[in-house]
Amino acid sequence: MARGLSDKPTWGASKGPPSPPTLRTPRRSRGAPRPPNTRRHPGTPGAPLDVPWVTALIPAGGAGRRLGTRTPKQFLRLAGVPMLALTVRHFATHPGVGAVVVAVPVREVERARETLRALERRVPLSVVAGGATRQESVWLALQAAPADTEIAIVHDAVRPFLTRALIDLVLAAAAKAGASICALPIAETVKRVRDGVVEATIDRTGLWAVQTPQAFRVAVLREAHEKARRDGIVGTDDAMLVERLGQRVVVVPGLEGNVKITSAADLRRARARARR
Predict the structure, then answer these.
(1) Is residue 191 part of a domain?
(2) Is this model's pTM higher than 0.90 or not?
């Protein structure tokens, strides 16, 4: 399958998480005014960054029951580093991201703060108590985002194999269109099954498997969540809520390796990959 982006992660087992880039824009302290035209395009020193002020929202409420572990899956280690820290690092070290908010179960707030303490030097970072569902956790993280956030980029805590190039694509598309997701066309045959028996084969033309990150103008994301709360709707992702507004959502190519780690088999494969 043609992909358009490299699946190579930005960290490996032997070296651990990557060192910070040598050219970085100084971070703004929380509450300080944002100076104009100070951020830069990732990888292009001196070029203005053409996306507005960005906050990353990381829902991290998984309990790990499907993995069969006592430790919540976001705290399981890959290459010796908690998965949550690996995921958040992608955003904390990204020059276009101005703040990060992580939502975890209330009983895990202190553990998450300790896990992410080293990244607080990179970016203003908040850990908040999440809700009973992923959607509620994103909503609560959104309430904790800095008031001047213009774009929110939402990413699952247990997708640690994203790349800076993918973040760039999603942000650029959201800055232009107001809402963007990353996804891959479905290659396998898809069947509807009931009680272990095939009911129908689904035409896969136009079907895409959706990933995160997903990015939205913050006013759009807020309106989408408020409407879902009024209507009693629980969506499978944030884009579904935004679609209910009639908002156009742009799709950019995802990564085959940008998997969500939800099963024991996923974890084994992720650990093997992290050791390479």
Answers:
(1) yes
(2) no
Give me the CATH number covering residue 209. 3.90.550.10
* Domain residue limits at 257: 54-275
The Cα 119–Cα 17 span in angstroms is: 12
What's the rounded Cα separation, in Å, for the pair 84 and 96? 20
- Per residue in 65-79, pLDDT (tens digit) is 666 677 899 999 999
Q: Flag whether 31 is in a domain.
A: no
DSSP 8-state secondary structure symbol assigned to residue 150: -
Please tell me the total count of domains within the chain.
Answer: 1
Amino acid at 145: A
Alpha carbons 261 and 212: distance in angstroms, whole number? 12
* φ/ψ of residue 8, rounded to 5: -65, 125
Using a pLDDT cut of 90, give the percent of the chain over it: 75
Q: Which amino acid is at 115?
A: T
What's the gap between Cα 258 and its chain centre?
10
Query: Does residue 17 belong to any structural domain of this protein?
Result: no
| Within-domain flag for 19 | no
CA 9 to chain centre: 15
